[in-house]
């Protein structure tokens, strides 16, 4: 059963509760929100117009061929004239003769290729959104028109809008690539757009720098899931090395790429990996697939190098998670109603067990044929040994997914046909993850100590899983459960997507990546499993105990306000979205943490 339908299940589960009373967040919270959305939005719009559209041209001489800005955008730094899909040539004045091919390659039909489509960060109010392409006003350039020349000739970010870099960094440089590597894609059909959410947050969090010479890291914002991902990667890496001087500084070791594929870097064709081996090896990959040792069952080759690459959580976006028992407002209401919140079941898993969608044989518990390439056979073996055990619920599907996940202590968090998302999902639902696939690191492992809030089980112990879990004491369960409330925050991209368990976003997945990068910068040779021992701030961060000023709360998903003065994400959306280019995350400048702010440079900055 999918989580989407599970959301319905949990709504029914909690349907008897009333949602009247406000959940009190914190008396000392500071708020920028005055509750009056409409006036506020209008004022912002006016200011945006004043800063952007009527700005005088920073210089009358363009470094691009004359006429470029008629249909295209001049990247003044490089003198590169960037064209939308429909135009081509050195000055973007030739109608693209290969339009049909190009549209198809980027996920459109010829018809949908011309339709309106949202623009990245709504072009920061300094350009016109043309079918997903920011046609920036002359003098501005970049995927979202955020760049322009400063008085000293250097490149400025969000000039005139008050961009303030984060004091302690790390500073991250983002390559502005030609639009055929970034904005030409059909945003409505993008699979796993984490590289774009990350890019948005780098700006709204004050971490982006336009000065390569002061950068600690370099982000290459490419899509690794498209059909043409391999050819784009193959083109981009040499392009970066010959266009900017930053790679040669250190052989590309501090260059980051987010790869969201099931098998991470292993998804690139072998010939290409061989050919680019030196380049690929030097890059730092941020991937969901934490396999670091060859796995003989499914013949999986490692895709992750601990200490060099970083395993990052899958971005789950499914509606309904705000109904998690970890959400204080949901929990409080359930308690008021006298609902039973105890987790009296021991172990739960519902989902695909055999590689195909067929259920295992109910007599023998086996899949036919046995397939080791799916989940390394872990789901099949767990089912085979435990499907009829008291206190265990291991099923191919259930109509009561969220009730079950909320009423069992331990939940299986296996891999799928490569990386899995269950460890993220069950953590957010407060069920202790049982991580079970040999040689696989979980998100942010070993930087986070997974054994503190999960039960890692080696595959050889699958048959005696009930004994392993039986040996965990009540006290240990309680400790893990209390730690899970913090660990779950590291698993979710709250600042991009909105709050779901009452969190303020300070410890979300984005901030956790940044915190790990900060450690990399500060202690380049320290093994990541020792981060917590040597750095007090890192230890406090991982335990969600930074202290300091209470941040402004995030807008919350669902119908519940997290704080009376703060709108829900839906309310933000309703009131402000008409002034943006469409309603996708993509057009929401800076992510949900900026939901009430049209100018991303001004949105909430409470993580200094
Ligand atoms: C434009 O270029 C010309 C010749 O290259 C130069 O004389 C002039 O000062 C430039 N104008 C600006 C505003 O940079
Ligand atoms: C993208 O466009 C550039 C020109 O700006 C071109 O040289 C390059 O081959 C294109 N790359 C891909 C992957 O289409
Ligand atoms: C990779 O890094 C090494 C140093 O660690 C350097 O010698 C080599 O040139 C780099 N390769 C590339 C392609 O930059
Ligand atoms: C890349 O090079 C390393 C050694 O430098 C080697 O172990 C690895 O197998 C190579 N990968 C590919 C895909 O050729
Ligand atoms: C847990 O308790 C509920 C009643 O509160 C009961 O219906 C359910 O069967 C129990 N589950 C287990 C696994 O004992
Ligand atoms: C499941 O276990 C019960 C006893 O706990 C047993 O009576 C029943 O036959 C078992 N079912 C299967 C399919 O093994």
TrEMBL record:
It comes from the Eukaryota. Its main location: Golgi. SUPFAM superfamilies: Growth factor receptor domain (SSF57184). One of its GO terms (molecular function) is glycosyltransferase activity. GO terms for cellular component: Golgi membrane. Residues 1-20 form the signal peptide. Residues 60-93 form the EGF-like domain. It is found in: Golgi apparatus membrane. Keywords: Disulfide bond, EGF-like domain, Golgi apparatus, Signal. PROSITE patterns: EGF_1, EGF_2, EGF_3. Transmembrane segments: none annotated. It is a single-pass type II membrane protein. Disulfide bonds join 64-74, 83-92. It holds the Pfam family Exostosin_GT47. Belongs to the glycosyltransferase 47 family. This is EGF-like domain-containing protein.
